[in-house]
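Design a sequence for this backbone.
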């Protein structure tokens, strides 16, 4: 009986630790998204890109197909949003953040850009990975 109580106590402790880790991960991911929203709204596309993995392996999938790499993704954003009138003010609605595996989550959400050249709305699914202690987007699908 004593061994059963010890095993149950250990399981409860591990579950509680796992939940608190997941809460901390989600909080950190939301912090990255907030920094991105602020940078975008300040017409700072490079600051916005700080949330992405600075690697040739980054993938962005949008209406024009797949863009590979951090530099190419930045160039894509710079062409599509050349002025402050195009970047406007960004807001997100996060609908779900789900753990995929240890150190990886997907985020489902909606974006809205209020801007002078006409508002833009869409949906996204992004994959975050913890790389060297930092949460970075490694894949983005937006439409």
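Sequence:
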């Amino acid at each position: 009986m004593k061994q059963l109580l010890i095993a149950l106590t250990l399981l409860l402790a591990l579950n509680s630790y796992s939940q608190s880790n997941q809460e901390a991960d989600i909080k950190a991911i939301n912090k990255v998204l907030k920094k991105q929203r602020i940078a975008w709204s300040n017409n700072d596309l490079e600051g916005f890109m700080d949330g992405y993995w600075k690697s040739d392996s980054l993938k962005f999938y949008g209406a024009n197909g797949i863009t590979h790499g951090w530099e190419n993704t930045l160039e894509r954003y710079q062409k599509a949003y050349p002025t402050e009138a195009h970047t406007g003010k960004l807001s997100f609605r996060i609908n779900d953040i789900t753990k995929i595996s240890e150190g990886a989550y997907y985020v489902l959400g909606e974006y809205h850009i209020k801007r002078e050249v006409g508002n833009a709305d869409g949906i996204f699914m992004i994959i975050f990975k913890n790389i060297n202690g930092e949460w970075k987007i490694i894949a983005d699908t937006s439409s």
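Residues 2-41 form the longest helix (40 residues).
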